[in-house]
Structures are given as C-alpha cells and as structure tokens.
Design brief:
Blueprint lengths: L15 E4 L4 E5 L2 E2 L6 H10 L7 E6 L7 H7 L5 E6 L2 H17 L4 E5 L3 H12 L6 E4 L10 H40 L6 E2 L3 E2 L5 E4 L5 H12 L10 E5 L3 H6 L6 E4 L20 E4 L4 H4 L6 E4 L7 H8 L13 H12 L4 E4 L16 H9 L9 H4 L5 E4 L5 E4 L1 H14 L5 E4 L9 E3 L1 H8 L11 E2 L7 H23 L6 H14 L21 H23 L1
Helix pairs in contact: 1-2, 4-5, 5-17, 15-16, 15-17
Length: 561
C-alpha cells in the first residue's frame, strides 16, 4: 500500500479510546468520531439500510474499528467490494489492527488503504480489482472519522467515480473503434520503413510551445505572427508542437510548426490538412491513426504508439523491433501534444489553446476547420452563435482561469481532470493565461510566456537532434506480416472444420491461436477494456471467424507492399 504524507493537523495528540455500551468510541483532534452510547448498533443500522446492487464499489472513509462492515459483507452482490480508506496514520493503525481478520477472511471483497491523494486510491483500485469491474460507487459513512479530512475524502470519492465512468466510456469507445484501431495499425506498419521512431527526435533544452485549438489560441498566434510570422523553425529559439486541428490556424498566420501531432483514427480528420498536401511539415503520428492522414504532409514522419487495450500483438511488435515509443493512451490530441513536448526535450513547456471549454460564439480558434464551418453556414437564418450546440444537453457554465464565464461539457471536463491527473504540478509546465479552464499547473501571462520563449541563454540549445539508429527495413515488416498470416490461416482452418487431428489437440491449438490473434476479438463487448481471454461458446467463435478474412487481406497487402 502507498504511504503518503500525513495530512496537516494529523500529528500531535493520539486517538483516545472511550468505552461505550457496546464497543468503543474514539476522541481525536477535538472530535468524537463514534457514538459514545452504542457505536456498534448505530453502524449496523446504517449498513443495513444501504441499498445493494451488483457491480458496486462501497467506499467507507475512516472505518476505524470496522463496525457495520460485517453487515455490508453479508449483503454484498456479485462483482462488488468494499474499500476502507484512512487519511491519517494514527487512525490507519487502529483500522489495520481492527480489520486484520475481516480482510483476511474476505480477501477479494474487502480492502483497507492508507491514502490522502485521489491518484493513490485510483491506482489501488485498478491494481486490486482491475478495470470495468464496478459500474458505480456508493459512499457509506459508518462513523464520523471522515469529518476530520472531509475535502480529502470528497476528492478521493470524486476521482474514483470519474475513474469508473472513464473506464466504461473507454470500453464503449473500444467496442465502436477497436477494430478500426487494429486495421489502421496494420496499414501504418507499411510506412515504418520510410519513417522514424519518435524517440529519434530531440528538442534538447529549447523551450517548447504546445498548442491546442481552443479559442484562447487566437491571441497567442496573433502575437506569434507579429514576432515570428514567416520565420523558419530553425531560426526560432523555441519549438512548436501543435495538434493537427490547429495546423491551418498556424499556416494562416505564417507560422510553421516543428511538429504536428496526429491521433485521430477516423476519416473526418482529413479536414485538418486541407491545403497542406505535401507541405514540408514534420508529423508525430499515432500507430493507430488514419493512414491517409499519415501520408498527407511531406515532412518527416515520426511514429509513436498509444496502446488502446492489452494486446499480445503489441508484444510481438516490440520483440520484432517494430513497436515505436509508447505514450500513455490519453485519448486527446491536446494531451498527447503535452506528453510529447515533455518527452522530446528538457526545457520548459508552455501550453496554449488547450482550453477544455468554449464560448458562446467560438468552439475553436479562427481558421480551424470547425470555425471555418461555422462561418460558411452563417446567413440571415443561421447565427454565428449556435444555440443548439452551445446550450445542448450536458453543457454547463464554468469559470475559466481568468475568472470569466465559459462553457464546458462532461467529456471536456473529464479530459481536463485527466490532464491534471497526468501533468498536475509538473514544474516544467506553464499554462498561458486565457479563456480555458484551470489545468492544475502554474499559469503565466502572455508577456511572461514570450519572454521565456525568446530566451537564448547559454543553457538553451535550440538545435534539433536526430538519431537515425534503429531504422526499420521493409524486409522486417514483411516477415512479421508473413507470421501473422500463418496464424490466421491456421485459425481459419480450425474454425472452418478443415483441420485434421485429435479433437482435444485442435481445441487446445484453437485457444492458443485465438489468444495470439487477440486483435480479432478484443473489441467484443464481453472483452473490451478488461484484458479478457477467448471464449469457447459458439457465438464468440462465429464472430471471431467473421473477423479473420478482412484482417488476413490486410496482412497479405502488407507482406506484398
């Protein structure tokens, strides 16, 4: 278990045990944490009234002596568990001693954690129970210990709810797009021989400007245009890494990006490259991105990988030297811009246009495809303020980091929270003040930002360093495709009933081949996002059989390319 820093105020006096009619109460830090009369029956009554549902994580902040937990454990439904959390070292010692026998007896259903930070709780739940086990979270307060650190427990509860929601949202995305991700990956393998691994690129200690396409980008680009419009990247003392969505906004102002990040797997992403075909612009491309997007720009291609689920295919690619550097699957091109900017150098990273919010008349910066579409649709019947989108269900007002009111929605807010979870308090990150949401990193004014970007001190090396070692040959890719073809052909023969051999041996080989070719079925609803194993039921096998031929053709095309 992770042991973190003591919350402020936790040191000093020790908890005082007070005998009650049944059990004990505790006095600590000026508060009585359990009933002085009958804490046992009181906790049992609370536990008895908790509605029980399948797939539920019951969060018990500061369970202390564990009164009421036995009642909850007797009522637990399948795929449910109880997580007891203590944010204080002294109270944790009491809980650990009191719950030792219960946690040993109900190993997979009850756990105790010492934590004061949300990320500690989320990490513990993932490691202990895995993903997509719980559908909901219920907070059960069996005593008063939570009142000592209510804000910490509230943040932990909020983070766990978000973690559960995101896990299921990711599963829905995988069900809908998992097949496409795998197909794009195979197509993009054909480009590896003419591309580089993102690890070959190094911005050294130069400052990096990481740009998204939010409305606050406009003021930043206007100033950049005045100072560096028409300047080739090599002449700037800083580097620019931008999301593909804002590429046209930079081009419109005469600014060339050092690196454009391409993440999207679907065809509508091509609108971001209108007017940029064969332009000498370098791109960082996710291995699962739309292959047509990877072929548009004429600069260097640098591949990276964001594994969208657990696949044995990734391990085989890594063993063959075909898997580029891995980045965490953050789901947002803006977040990946920041992750790449941090990884490509050691200098400060300044963030602009990554807003996770919008205004009544602007969802994106000027000259981006989304903004151009609004202008094209504008007429006497269609206002620039699209009320249907701006005030759609789920949209809500929120205060930006400058104190002005903007709008956001649950998806954008989840990405903002994920940003803070991944990058919060990173000393290298500086957020340029604008209309976006607070990102949990230090915010600076535009004037301060341009002072840093124009820095040319002796410690700043603006040169881009390329490492050409480890280039991939087309022969290696072709050999890998041949091995995958052999696997699928054997699998198709067994599922088609044309293989010969003992039934038991064929069944064993079938499961072995299905596990190896897990990209065929990883997007099935019963498997998505949980690292599942192949099933033997007829429905599963029929669906897996249907997936084989399209993938077989892709591997054959890759072998011949």
């Amino acid at each position: 278990m992770t042991v973190s820093k003591k919350p402020s105020g936790a040191c000093g006096s020790k908890p005082q045990e007070i005998p009650a009619r049944q059990g004990f109460s505790i006095s600590y830090m000026g508060k009585t944490l359990l009933s002085r009369i009958d804490p046992v029956n009181q906790a049992d009554r609370i536990a008895a009234e908790v509605p029980m549902e399948e797939g539920t994580l019951y969060l018990c902040p500061s369970s202390l002596y564990g009164y009421g937990l036995s009642v909850l454990l007797e009522k637990l439904k399948p795929n449910s568990a109880i997580l007891c959390i203590e944010s204080d070292d002294n109270l944790y010692d009491i809980s650990k001693k009191s719950l030792e026998s219960l946690t040993r007896e109900h190993g997979g259903k009850l756990a105790l954690l010492r934590a004061s930070k949300p990320e500690e709780a989320c990490s513990f739940v993932r490691k202990t129970w895995g993903s997509r086990i719980f559908r909901r979270l219920v907070n059960v307060r069996l005593g008063g210990g939570w009142q000592l650190f209510p804000e910490q427990y509230e943040k932990i509860e909020t983070a766990l709810r978000r973690e559960i929601a995101v896990a299921w949202s990711n599963a829905m995305t995988l069900i809908r797009l998992g097949r496409l991700y795998s197909r794009n990956l195979i197509r993009n393998l054909a480009l590896l021989g003419q591309s580089k691994n993102i690890s070959a690129l190094n911005f050294s200690s130069a400052p990096v400007l990481a740009l998204g396409a939010g409305p606050s980008l406009d003021s930043i680009l206007d100033e950049l245009s005045n100072m560096f419009g028409g300047t080739i990247p090599e002449k700037r003392p800083f580097r620019i890494v931008c999301a593909d969505t804002c590429l046209s906004a930079l081009t419109e102002r005469g600014i060339k990006s050092d690196l454009v990040v391409i993440l999207e797997s679907q065809h509508w992403n091509l609108k971001d490259f209108t007017g940029h075909k064969n332009r000498n612009i370098n791109a960082a491309i996710d291995l699962s991105a739309l292959p047509a997007s990877a072929r548009v720009l004429g600069g260097e291609r640098y591949f990276f990988a964001t594994p969208w689920t657990e696949l044995r295919l990734f391990k085989r690619l890594a063993d063959s030297g075909l898997l580029p550097e891995i980045l965490p699957p953050l789901g947002s091109v803006g977040l990946n811009c920041v992750a790449l900017a941090l990884r490509l150098g050691s200098g400060p990273v300044l963030i602009g246009g990554i807003d996770f919010s919008y205004t009544d008349d602007a969802f994106h910066a000027r000259s981006t495809p989304g903004h151009n579409r609004v202008l094209l649709n504008n007429n006497r019947f269609k206002s620039l303020i699209n009320a249907d989108d701006t005030f759609r269900q789920g949209s809500f007002p929120i205060i930006s980091k400058t104190g002005t009111q903007v709008r956001s929605d649950p998806a954008l807010r989840n990405y903002r929270d994920l940003f803070e979870q991944e990058f919060g308090n990173n000393p290298r990150l500086l957020d340029i003040t604008g209309s976006g949401l607070n990102l949990g990193v230090k915010a600076i004014t535009a004037a301060e930002a341009f002072t840093i970007l124009n820095s040319t001190s002796d410690d700043t090396n603006g040169d881009i360093i390329y490492d050409n070692t480890g280039d991939i040959s087309d022969i290696t890719v072709s050999e890998f495709a041949r091995r995958e073809i052999d696997t699928l052909e054997k699998l198709m023969q067994i599922l088609s009933g044309t293989s010969t051999g003992e039934a038991s041996e064929l069944e064993e080989l079938l499961l072995e081949l299905l596990e190896k070719a897990d990209y065929l079925w990883a997007h099935f609803p019963e498997s998505a996002g949980v690292g599942g194993r192949p099933l033997k039921d007829l429905s599963f096998l029929k669906r897996a059989r249907v997936e084989i031929e399209p993938f077989l053709k892709l591997w054959q095309m890759l072998e011949e390319s």
